[in-house]
Amino acid sequence: MRRSLRPTAAVLAAVVALALAGCSNSSGSDTGTEGTQETSGATEGWPRTVDHGGRSTEITAKPTRIVSTSPSLTGTLLAIGAPLVASAATTPSGMTDDQGFFSQWSGVAADRGVAVLYRNLELDLDAIETFEPDLIIGSANGGDSTLDAYSQLSDIAPTVLLDYGASSWEELADQLGTVTGLESEAAKTVDEYDSWVTTQAAKIKLPEQPVTALVYMGADGVWTFRADSPQGNLLASLGFTYAEPAEQFVAPDKRGASGVAIVSSENMSAALDGAQTLFAVSMGPKDVEKQLAADPLLANQPAVKGDRVYAMGTAAFRLDYFSAKQTVESLVSTFGG
Question: Collapsing DSSP states into helix, strand and coil, what is residue 274?
Answer without folding.
Answer: coil
